[in-house]
TrEMBL record, chains A, B:
PROSITE patterns: CNMP_BINDING_3. InterPro entries: cNMP-bd_dom, cNMP-bd_dom_sf, RmlC-like_jellyroll. Residues 7-127 form the Cyclic nucleotide-binding domain. This is Crp/Fnr family transcriptional regulator. It holds the Pfam family cNMP_binding.
Length: 203, 203
DNA sequence: TAAAATTTTTAACATTTGTTAAAATTATTC
DNA sequence: GAATAATTTTAACAAATGTTAAAAATTTTA
């Protein structure tokens, strides 16, 4: 859900969102609980093209994207399908891995130089058991991520690739130029050739 | 996820799952907390074709399906797309409505005579604030529903309509005959004509 | 049980989209 | 900045699926 109602600043041209704002994006949290979450977080400075999550590896931890851009995708032997692009303030998570401690479905790469905060799953789970505010915050996180995923599904089911491309252009005007067309095409659910036809404006 | 590891009985030919087992399907719960949840639940006996949830109405409550079969679908002016079929032990919820108290996306109808348990959202939310076990159970519910939705998305992205039809036949052998082909076709993401061709075995 | 209504299959055709491959453009590297 | 590599566009064709409409089959109703 991008940078909705966050208090953010610019550094050069880069949007940077604080970790506390990433947390509060899901649900109000009292300062004590924020502090507990911050204590199990680690700040990482990552280069463009860094790999955060691989589908064949267990990746239980959660990442919050403070700045930059990420791509989430599924992969099989013969195909790669982009599920989502995530902008600052968003969360990078392989839900299946996070919940079940087994390899999940998603791969997540960073498309730009980025700042991410990594939260240790084991310590987070133990906070869930002891701090009811954090337990409810974690519930909200799952609920809101569900709704976001549902909105993506709805959009894919009911909107044309052309309409969804226009949406993307509006949502990520500053990034879209630097994202490979193949990634965008698989996000839209069409071949790269079809996306080229869309861009060439053959209605 | 159907009737995985539940202790169920048959009544005539009907699978019936207890409310406590519906709860425990998500996460272990202690007897006290189960009791608290049961106290805010209401049992409903519903006829085939009953409407549980409408996308234009606020439907904050959650339903657990003890027996019968439900269909979840999205609808626009010109199209109706089936998202999921839910069998006993499953949960019927419009997540957006449940979380945001506004009309959600899904319509949910019962395709068979069914028994459902309705949980009052307001009372559930107040249990979330006072009972940390229930808060974590609610978190698990959202997380696992997310994963189920993700699996459906994966299946739709990577499997052919033919493969998915075979999966359906395997998962709901006893129901599939009574479900309209139009519903199944829209679940598979193809036209009804194409589904007829699949059934006629034109490979 | 016959008639009506609903659902499913089949047919014919048009359209869209994918595939492969080559040309054009843009970006990267030395 | 020239040469190389990577990416994007265009073209030509084939194949799959949607659309419309009618026929067949099944279910419901009177």
């Amino acid at each position: 859900m991008g940078w909705g109602n966050f208090t953010f600043r610019k550094m050069g041209e880069k949007v940077v969102i604080s970790l506390a704002d990433c947390f509060q994006g899901y649900h109000f949290l009292n300062p004590t609980s924020i502090d507990r979450l911050e204590q199990i977080s680690e700040k990482l400075i990552c280069k463009r093209n860094s790999v955060l999550i691989r589908q064949d590896k267990i990746q239980k931890d959660i990442y919050f994207l403070a700045s930059g851009l990420a791509r989430v995708y599924y992969e099989t032997a013969d195909r790669q399908i982009t599920l989502d692009f995530v902008s600052p303030g968003g969360t990078l998570i392989s839900m299946n891995s996070y919940v079940h401690d087994t390899p999940g479905y998603e791969n997540i790469d960073l498309l730009e130089d980025s700042i991410v905060y990594k939260i240790d799953q084991k310590q987070l789970f133990s906070l869930y058991e002891s701090d009811i505010a954090i337990a409810n915050w974690g519930r909200k996180m799952a609920e809101l991520e569900f709704i976001k995923a549902e909105q993506r599904t709805m959009s894919k089911l009911f909107n044309t690739a052309q309409e969804r491309y226009a949406e993307l252009l509006e949502k990520y005007p500053q990034y879209i130029q630097r994202i490979k067309l193949g990634y965008i095409a698989s996000y839209l659910g069409v071949s790269q050739v079809t996306l080229s036809r869309i861009r060439a404006n053959i209605p």
